TrEMBL record:
Protein family: Belongs to the short-chain dehydrogenases/reductases (SDR) family.
Molecular-function GO terms, alphabetical: oxidoreductase activity
Keywords: Oxidoreductase
Protein name as it appears in the record: SDR family oxidoreductase
NCBIfam families found in the cross-reference section: PRK07231.1 (NF005559)
Record flagged with keyword Membrane: no
Keyword NADP belongs to the record: no
Short name of one Pfam family: adh_short_C2
PROSITE patterns the record matches: ADH_SHORT
Amino acid sequence: MSHDELRGRVALVTGAGSGIGRASALGFARRGASVVAADIDADGATETAGLIEAGGGHAEARRVDVADEEQVRDLVRGTAARHGRLDYAHNNAGVSGAASPVAAMRKQDWDRTIAVNLTSVFLCLRFELELMAEQGHGAVVNTASVAGITGNASLGDYAASKAGVVALTKVAAIEHAPYGIRVNAVAPGFTATGMTSASMVDNPEWAEAALAAEPVGRAASPEEIAEAAVWLCSDAASYVVGHVLVVDGGLTVGRRPPDAPAVTVDRRA
């Protein structure tokens, strides 16, 4: 994609205060889109918007609890009111889950994970699709996870929430493709974000196993996931509908050979 391909268009990114969401917001901005960076962490969202503005782009920060219907409604409708349109949305906000076996999981942990990871995507879609249908165009990408495809021991709430995102993405895509709206999802594998770092502290055995299983021998960077999300929204993916793009270094293909060498990547190349 060129650096001005999205000029004149508007992108909304939730969970934009850090990690994949921040990388996605910066990716949309680099291609010319005006970005609404939304996050429950107001400081993080403001920092992301500041990075975009410092790079010559256009952005605004909005604090939002994506599990609150009224706040999501105001976010989406407010974006359209201020900018006159909404071309792209990346519904990315999420939490890592409770790190507990299903038999020991507390309902309050289950409820929070489902609310932030799945109900929020429903709420965002509810208002984004309503608006995009009136426009007659739009593209949405939801952040799922390989955990929602393969399952992860001790992450039942997280895996269930992400499996729900996969299913919801496909249903929304079927319903809205006739209206010129494309809905897709990106399913990251092990990715080096602040949320992942917290999970590594809470569940170091899981983190060690996840890295050991990666065929490429490393975690993804947030930028690698974000590039896939931005591409799914772009005109380059104009015939991609209802797809779950797995970006996992080959994790869902098979496990890394136990004697494989460590891999280092020189990103200066």
